[in-house]
Amino acid sequence: MRVGLFGGSFDPVHDGHLTLATAALQQLKLQRVYFVVSPRSPFKAGERKSPAAVRLSLVKLALRGSPKLRAADWEMKRRGLSYTITTLRAYRRAHPSDEIFLITGSDTLAGFSRWRSPGAIVKLATVVSGRRPGAKWGKLPAALEPRVRRLHGFFPDVSATDVRAAIAAGRRPKGIAPAVRREIERRGLYR
Known about the structure:
By secondary structure, this protein is of the alpha/beta class. It has helices at residues 15-27, 52-63, 84-94, 106-109, 118-124, 160-168, 178-187, and strands spanning 2-8, 32-37, 69-72, 99-105, 126-130, 148-150.
């Protein structure tokens, strides 16, 4: 099976995430994309986030009606920081014959060489990225470049930071699914 793993804090999940996952699904002919909710990212250790269980429930709401897109709580079941290499190794052990595609945005890809074990990551998975409007493709080390595929298409200019800021300012956020927005309002998140 051809499977996409899309990790992130998803705080909250937004249209940019959904568009990127859908583009990967279609362009790479994937059977499934898992949104792997990270409880604690090593790059966002100082940031205050919504609880992982809440973020997972928002992802599930956003993915309703899209059977090939699924929420995954795998990293939430482990202790400590979430490292992509750990998730990839665990997935490979459980599904040794699957072809794995690691989905990232261009903003995340720019810092890829700082990740834990980037060389091992590209041996386990093909890294796939979509470019956010106005962002440039980051320069990758020559050894990593052949294992990175760039997706084509338009990806919305929306970020979780902008969504949280809009809500905190009392404005209606752009770029999130109505069901996700209603749940954010119901829970009083990001105020």
